[in-house]
Amino acid sequence: MSQDGKVKTTESTPPAPTKARKWLPVLDPSGDYYYWWLNTMVFPIMYNLIIVVCRACFPDLQHSYLVAWFVLDYTSDLLYLLDIGVRFHTGFLEQGILVVDKGMIASRYVRTWSFLLDLASLVPTDAAYVQLGPHIPTLRLNRFLRVPRLFEAFDRTETRTAYPNAFRIAKLMLYIFVVIHWNSCLYFALSRYLGFGRDAWVYPDPAQPGFERLRRQYLYSFYFSTLILTTVGDTPLPDREEEYLFMVGDFLLAVMGFATIMGSMSSVIYNMNTADAAFYPDHALVKKYMKLQHVNKRLERRVIDWYQHLQINKKMTNEVAILQHLPERLRAEVAVSVHLSTLSRVQIFQNCEASLLEELVLKLQPQTYSPGEYVCRKGDIGREMYIIREGQLAVVADDGVTQYAVLGAGLYFGEISIINIKGNMSGNRRTANIKSLGYSDLFCLSKEDLREVLSEYPQAQAVMEEKGREILLKMNKLDVNAEAAEIALQEATESRLKGLDQQLDDLQTKFARLLAELESSALKIAYRIERLEWQTREWPMPEDMGEADDEAEPGEGTSKDGEGKAGQEGPSDIE
User: What is the membrane topology noted in the UniProt record heading this document (predicted)?
Assistant: First the structure.
């Protein structure tokens, strides 16, 4: 309260953003930042998978670079700790919406097995260095529990890379290397346990010249493990039970490894063949058909060259089938990003609505023409227009040799034939011969597809017809008199249609009135019949009349007044 007695009101202001909110925003699990963090975590996990076991089995390696190992060990531990923090700031989807509430994210994360594994991987087991000494790297084996994070990073990379099959092969080779590396480390450790040089199977005695070097020890062990796991043979026979057990385990591992490698390679090859079949048409069926039908060699060669051109230059002719599984709106955006610039070059489509162009883009059909192949001939019925995407086409005379003009990328032709313009002297017939000089890539838009789209955009249709009329006027191919006659005929036809519509409406109105009157008359007649039925039920039957006469005979001496009165009551009752 102030000195003058008035109460001061303070507006509630939102709390200032904390540093945690500023520097640790909620990450989208499908976003780029989260993806790059996963790739960063690959390095400490691979370091622990490869180096720790190698240090445990090769003592010279552990002793020679102890300071470097400590630096790398605790750097990887720091990244492990930061990864847990990233987990607490990674959103999740609930009903399709990204949850950014950190309380809900933390509550969900701590209830998962991933949280327990992450904590177990950071248990400071290397604190035992104080009592056991710093040369026991096996105390850090709990760091292997972060391996699921490595698999997640590989899965994300496989979905994002442009070469998924090559990445699968590289990943398989990495797994094979890790298995052989681990096996070579175990072989050297077993040789040290049994005694170096005790027999031909174990590692030779390091006292021999050359075998005391660390590099030689690792390479010999890696080579020996490779021979065993690939079942190539040429390995010394084991002499002891431990050696036999090691060989049996390696043989079983080799069998499983071969099955995995063959299955993975078969999957990669199948995916590559499936992708090729989806992108490029299958030429084997066409070749077999031509062989069965005894097509001449020259035409067969042209067909094979066409298929070869598509395969070598990565040309696609079935874009619609490739994008068919995408949602309609997303498919339209992809098509717009690829082909809208080409469609917007066409003069009659300029200044059209964006939604109209988006629908037209989905109707474009890519086509590839071989050298010397005619795209259209003079006098053909025009059912589509073409847009040149790549290549050159020539407007030639009837002899096919004389060239009048050359059309290049970005140009178009045949647009007038797919629009019904009144007074067009050529009608819907082609007016020139157009031949491909080399391999040409065109976009085709059919008349039916254009008509289907324009049915929803009448204003755009009128604008396009006006632009087509201007083009015909410049080309002196517009008959004004015929146009006026067609317009007059169309107006007269529309007037007659309007008159017929009016007459039809009048007839429908009269017919409705007649039906209403008929229904009203039928109701009245039904009502009168029902009334008469109720009245006739009160009339006396003939038998009842006879009984009444018999009762009247004894009273014949009654007065005439009484008879007259009785005679008057009968008709009144009938009424």
Answer: Multi-pass membrane protein
What integer pLDDT is reported at residue 563 of this predicted model? 43
SS3 17: coil
User: Which 3 state secondary structure label does DSSP give 404?
Assistant: strand
Distant-in-sequence, close-in-space partners of 190: CB < 8 Å, separation ≥ 6: 202, 242, 243, 246
Which class for 307: exposed (0-12), middle (13-18), buried (19 or more C-beta within 10 A)?
A: middle
Percentage of the chain modeled with pLDDT above 90: 24
Count of alpha carbons within 13 angstroms of residue 567, beta-carbon side? 6
- 410 in helix, strand or coil? coil
The DSSP element (H or E) to which 300 belongs, if any, is: helix 297-312
CA distance 246 to 217: 19
Q: What is the CATH number of domain 319-478?
A: 2.60.120.10
Q: Is 374 exposed, middle or buried (0-12, 13-18, 19+ CB in 10 A)?
A: middle
- The DSSP output letter for 415 is T
HEC-encoded secondary structure of 121-139: HCCCHHHHHHHHCCCCHHH
**Angle of the 147-160 helix axis to the 164-194 helix axis, nearest 10:** 150
DSSP code per residue over 501-534: HHHHHHHHHHHHHHHHHHHHHHHHHHHHHHHHHH
- DSSP-derived secondary structure letter, 98: E
Neighbours of 534 (CB within 10 A): 8
Q: Tell me the per-residue pLDDT of 375-390, one tens digit each, with 9 for 90 and over.
A: 988 888 888 888 888 8
How far apart (Å, rounded) are the C-alpha atoms in residues 551 and 492? 89
Domain ranges in the chain are 32-266, 283-313, 319-478
Instruction: Look up residue 240 and give its amino acid.
Output: R
Rounded to whole angstroms, the Cα distance separating 281 from 283 reads 6
Name beta bridge partners: 396. 403, 433
138: pLDDT strictly greater than 50 = yes
Q: What is the DSSP pairing of strand 440-446 with strand 365-369?
A: antiparallel
- Strand stretches in 438-568, DSSP E: 440-446
* Cα Rg of the chain, angstroms: 47
Q: Which DSSP symbol is given to 26?
A: P
Q: Rounded to two decimals, what is the model's pTM?
A: 0.61
52: DSSP letter: I
**pLDDT single digits (tens) 234-243:** 788 888 999 9
pLDDT in tens, 193-211: 999 988 899 999 888 888 8
Where does the pLDDT of residue 478 fall: very low under 50, low under 70, confident under 90, or very high at 90 and above? low
